[in-house]
Amino acid sequence: MRLNDLLGHRVHDSAGEDIGGVADVRLVQDGPLLSSNQSALRVDGLIVVEHKSTRLFGYERHVGPALLRWLVHRRLGAVWYLPWEDVERITDHVVQTRSGREDLRPLEELARY
Protein backbone atom coordinates (compact mmCIF):
# COMPACT_ATOMS: atom_id res chain seq x y z
CA MET A 1 0.00 0.00 0.00
CA ARG A 2 1.23 3.50 -0.79
CA LEU A 3 0.86 6.24 1.80
CA ASN A 4 -1.19 8.27 -0.66
CA ASP A 5 -3.70 5.40 -0.71
CA LEU A 6 -4.44 6.02 3.00
CA LEU A 7 -5.62 9.58 2.39
CA GLY A 8 -9.38 9.76 2.44
CA HIS A 9 -9.86 6.44 4.26
CA ARG A 10 -12.54 6.57 6.93
CA VAL A 11 -11.38 5.86 10.48
CA HIS A 12 -13.51 3.68 12.76
CA ASP A 13 -12.92 3.35 16.49
CA SER A 14 -12.87 0.11 18.49
CA ALA A 15 -16.69 0.14 18.68
CA GLY A 16 -17.00 0.50 14.90
CA GLU A 17 -18.14 4.13 15.06
CA ASP A 18 -16.94 6.50 12.33
CA ILE A 19 -14.44 9.03 13.75
CA GLY A 20 -13.49 10.90 10.60
CA GLY A 21 -11.20 10.72 7.59
CA VAL A 22 -7.44 10.42 7.14
CA ALA A 23 -6.15 13.83 6.02
CA ASP A 24 -2.41 13.30 6.41
CA VAL A 25 0.28 10.83 7.42
CA ARG A 26 2.96 11.80 9.92
CA LEU A 27 6.44 10.46 9.15
CA VAL A 28 9.52 10.41 11.37
CA GLN A 29 13.04 10.10 10.00
CA ASP A 30 14.57 7.72 12.55
CA GLY A 31 14.75 4.44 10.67
CA PRO A 32 17.84 2.51 9.60
CA LEU A 33 20.64 4.34 7.83
CA LEU A 34 20.28 4.24 4.05
CA SER A 35 23.02 4.27 1.41
CA SER A 36 22.41 8.04 1.04
CA ASN A 37 23.63 8.49 4.67
CA GLN A 38 20.15 9.54 5.76
CA SER A 39 17.83 7.65 8.06
CA ALA A 40 14.80 5.95 6.57
CA LEU A 41 11.31 7.32 7.20
CA ARG A 42 8.72 5.43 9.20
CA VAL A 43 5.00 6.06 9.71
CA ASP A 44 4.44 7.61 13.15
CA GLY A 45 0.69 8.18 12.92
CA LEU A 46 -2.30 9.51 11.04
CA ILE A 47 -3.95 12.93 11.15
CA VAL A 48 -7.72 12.42 11.31
CA VAL A 49 -10.29 15.15 10.66
CA GLU A 50 -13.87 14.89 11.89
CA HIS A 51 -15.93 16.26 9.01
CA LYS A 52 -14.04 15.90 5.77
CA SER A 53 -10.85 14.21 4.70
CA THR A 54 -9.26 17.12 2.95
CA ARG A 55 -5.86 18.64 2.42
CA LEU A 56 -4.42 20.41 5.44
CA PHE A 57 -2.58 23.73 5.15
CA GLY A 58 -1.26 24.16 8.71
CA TYR A 59 -4.07 26.33 10.06
CA GLU A 60 -5.57 23.37 11.94
CA ARG A 61 -2.73 23.81 14.50
CA HIS A 62 -3.96 27.21 15.75
CA VAL A 63 -1.43 29.26 13.77
CA GLY A 64 -2.11 32.06 11.33
CA PRO A 65 -4.84 34.70 11.15
CA ALA A 66 -7.77 34.09 13.51
CA LEU A 67 -10.43 34.36 10.79
CA LEU A 68 -8.66 31.84 8.58
CA ARG A 69 -8.22 29.42 11.52
CA TRP A 70 -11.90 29.76 12.36
CA LEU A 71 -12.92 28.97 8.77
CA VAL A 72 -10.62 25.94 8.64
CA HIS A 73 -11.94 24.57 11.95
CA ARG A 74 -15.54 25.10 10.83
CA ARG A 75 -14.85 23.00 7.74
CA LEU A 76 -12.73 20.29 9.37
CA GLY A 77 -14.30 19.96 12.81
CA ALA A 78 -12.02 18.30 15.34
CA VAL A 79 -8.53 17.28 14.20
CA TRP A 80 -6.87 14.36 15.98
CA TYR A 81 -3.61 12.47 15.94
CA LEU A 82 -3.88 8.66 15.73
CA PRO A 83 -0.61 6.90 16.67
CA TRP A 84 0.35 4.19 14.18
CA GLU A 85 0.53 1.55 16.94
CA ASP A 86 -3.21 2.11 17.58
CA VAL A 87 -4.10 1.09 14.02
CA GLU A 88 -5.52 -2.41 14.18
CA ARG A 89 -6.10 -3.06 10.48
CA ILE A 90 -6.60 -1.31 7.17
CA THR A 91 -9.21 -2.57 4.73
CA ASP A 92 -10.76 -1.07 1.62
CA HIS A 93 -11.33 2.58 2.55
CA VAL A 94 -11.46 1.93 6.34
CA VAL A 95 -8.79 2.22 9.04
CA GLN A 96 -9.85 0.31 12.18
CA THR A 97 -8.34 1.49 15.49
CA ARG A 98 -7.83 -0.22 18.83
CA SER A 99 -8.86 2.92 20.69
CA GLY A 100 -11.97 5.04 20.98
CA ARG A 101 -12.56 8.63 19.90
CA GLU A 102 -12.09 9.81 23.50
CA ASP A 103 -8.55 8.34 23.54
CA LEU A 104 -7.31 10.41 20.59
CA ARG A 105 -5.20 13.51 21.23
CA PRO A 106 -6.06 16.80 19.53
CA LEU A 107 -3.46 17.64 16.88
CA GLU A 108 -2.56 20.97 18.48
CA GLU A 109 -1.28 19.07 21.56
CA LEU A 110 1.22 17.18 19.44
CA ALA A 111 4.78 18.50 19.73
CA ARG A 112 6.44 19.53 16.48
CA TYR A 113 9.70 17.93 15.52
**Which structural class fits the helix and strand makeup?**
mainly beta
**Count of discrete structural domains:** 1
Strand content: 25-35%
Total count of helical runs of at least 4 residues: 2
Determine the N-to-C terminus distance.
26 Å
The arrangement of helices and strands along the chain is HEEEHEEEE
Give the overall form: globular
Mean pLDDT: 85
User: Within the CATH hierarchy, at the fold level, what is the topology?
Assistant: SH3 type barrels
Spatial order of strands in the largest sheet: 5-6-1-2-3-4-7
Q: State the CATH architecture.
A: Roll
Topology, number of strands = 7
Give the CATH H-level superfamily.
PRC-barrel domain
Helix content: 10-25%
Task: Indicate the low-confidence ranges by residue numbers.
Answer: none
Alpha-carbon Rg, integer: 15 Å
Largest sheet: 7 strands, mixed
The CATH class turns out to be Mainly Beta
Architecture overview:
It comes from Kribbella amoyensis. This is PRC-barrel domain protein. 13% of the residues lie in helices and 34% in strands. The chain is mainly β and 113 residues long. The chain has a single domain (3-109), classed as SH3 type barrels. Strands 5-6-1-2-3-4-7 form a seven-stranded mixed sheet, with no helix packed on it. The protein is globular, with a radius of gyration of 15 Å. It starts with a helix and ends in a 7-residue tail after the last strand. The mean pLDDT is 85.
SSE arrangement:
Blueprint: H1 3-6, E1 10-12, E2 18-28, E3 42-49, H2 66-76, E4 79-83, E5 87-91, E6 94-97, E7 105-106
Parallel strand pairs: 1-6
Antiparallel strand pairs: 1-2, 2-3, 3-4, 4-7, 5-6
Protein name: PRC-barrel domain protein
